[in-house]
Structures are given as structure tokens and as C-alpha cells.
Request: fold
Amino acid sequence: MNYCMLYLKTANVNLVKDMGMIPYKLYKLFGFNSEVATYKLGEYPYLNNEVKGLKIHFIKKTFRSYCIDGAAFLIKQSKYIDVLQIFHVTLSSVIYAYVYKFFNKKGKLYLKLDCSHKLIERIKTLNSVGRFFLDSFLDKVDIISVEQECLICELKELLGRNEVKLIHIANGVDYNYFMNENLNYDFNIKEKVILNVARIGAEEKDTPLLLEAFASIDSDSRRGWVLKLVGPIKEGFESYIVKYFERYPELIGQVIFTGEITDRAKLYEEYRRATIFALTSQFESVGISFIEAAAFGDIIISTNVGIIGEIVTESNGIIVNSREPKEFGSALKSLLSSNDLQLKSQRTYNICAEKYNWDEIISKLKGYLIP
Reply:
């Protein structure tokens, strides 16, 4: 079975996310001849270890156009591809679908929608012409998947004749990798760390909300706890950080910016040792960091975005619906003083292990690819 994931923006880091893990796990678990087709965007060291055995096809930037270069690849290769995986409802995806199905009518086309409620809103606003083109595109597709369970029912109603193609395929984490790297969950090694992993200072991440919320907690309740922010710092946000420490000099050493951690094992060690994971985003399509945090039993406190509602259940974390720093801070303070952190942590870990194990997710997907 020849499987190709076509996404020209695939960089090394994407190989351990859904772009790479789906074809890799299909190869590893079921012997698929899996390939990633992309522009070459730097080096790909993960091919040597994390996704060893996954093939990669570098597409030349002949026209420097995602649409044209991807279509040119498919004109030559479609007849050899049994299953083609594409992403999103974009002009590129539409062109890929038509070209692939023209050259390989028996081939199976899998559309993975990395989407949120915004896609539903867009579909609802389509006029008759837009709706015609959407339906024509989806007619070419054999399988459509979404990551968020909460979107399934509404999307089915909107997709009309194509609703039977819609399935739920979550993003996940690779527990085999954790085992091989001795990164197994252990509450006993956790430290008094509140972890945030994001693009620090990006508008949609609303880093100031988290920083101000932490500062609003009284010093006695904060004592011993560290807020650690991991990720690249957006240009221009450094001035905010300087002013923040000028206003709250007592937080120097208690609020730590590590910068970006590119080593996968080192990043996971941060999750593993943190007790709480905090996110204040305004928007997340899924929020892969939720899954990574939950995989290590981090107790999650977050604004109501992405798949947070699928992970924070059974009183194992907090969803904050307010964007006021004092209210987020009050919720965070309640966690810092909680006497059942280990129980909350274990519940979070169990939910993640049940729902977000790549091996289980890919076994489910394989059943749709080869009924």
C-alpha cells in the first residue's frame, strides 16, 4: 500500500506531529510504503531516529507555487499512490484533489481538516456558488477527518451528501517514544513548576494574560512555585518582559523564559517535571500542547480553546472562561493550594492514554483506509 502525505510546508518539527506521524505509524504498524512529499525546508534529523523508515520526497520549487509545484508532482506520481493525504480546505488542496483523481481514479483521497469552529462559520456564510465548489471538491474526497469530537455533529449537518465521509481522527502522542527515551510518567519527580509552551508574545497566545495572572497571586500562595515559559519570543515582546520585571521585581527568578527548546526529549522532560500546564490562548485549532502536557500528567488550566474540553473532565483541571487576569489568577491559585494534585494528575494522564495514543488512533484510521 503506497501512502503519500502531500504538504509542502512540512519541516523537520512536523515529522513528529500529525504530518509525519500518520504516515510513519502506518508504515511502522501495518507495513505501508509511506512517504512525505514537501519542499525541503532545512535539515530533517528526525528521519534518522524518531520516524526512521519514513520516506521523504523533496519537491523542487520550480514554480515557487504550492498549487503548481504540488500539481506537477501529482501529474507524475498519482498512478503510484494508493492513498493520498492532504490538509485543509485551500486552493492547493482543491487542485491536488482534482489532479490526483484525474490521474488515479481508483486511488483513495484522505482530507485531514485541522480545523475549529471557524471552518463551520465559513461554510455557513458561503453563497450558492461557493457551496457548489465546496461540494464538488468534497465529492472527490473519500475520507474526511476532524480532530475535535465536538465538531462532528454540526459538520455532518453542513456537509450534506458528503457527511458519510466524515470521521473523528484525533492527533496523538507516541508512547513508544516515551518508553524508549525513559520519559514515562511519574508524579514523584514533578516539581512546583507551572509550564507554558507556546510562541511567547504572539497575539493569539495572549502571554500577558498569563504573566499578569501569575503576578496577581499573593506572594504566600506563589511561594516555591515557578512559572516557566518555553518557546521562541516574538520580536518586540522583549520590551514587555523588561517592563514586566520592572513592575514586579520580586518575580525575577520566579518567572523564567527558556527560549525555544528544539530537542524533543528535552522539551518532553519539561512537561514531565512540570505539575501544572497553563495556556491563555485566544484561539487554538486543536492545541497539540494540551495532548503533550496531558501525556505527562500535567494538570491543565486554560482558556476555553481547542480540545481542552475533551481533556479537562472529571475535575482534573480548570477551564477559565474569563480573560481577566485576576480571574485566571484566582483559578490558578486554587490549583497551587490544592491538596489532591496527584489525583488530578493521574486522571489527566489516564484520559490522555485512553484517547490520544498514536498507535490506537492509527489502527482506527487504517480500518477506514482498508475496510
Q: What stands out?
A: The chain has two domains: 2-172+357-369, 177-355. Residues 341-355 form the longest helix (15 residues).
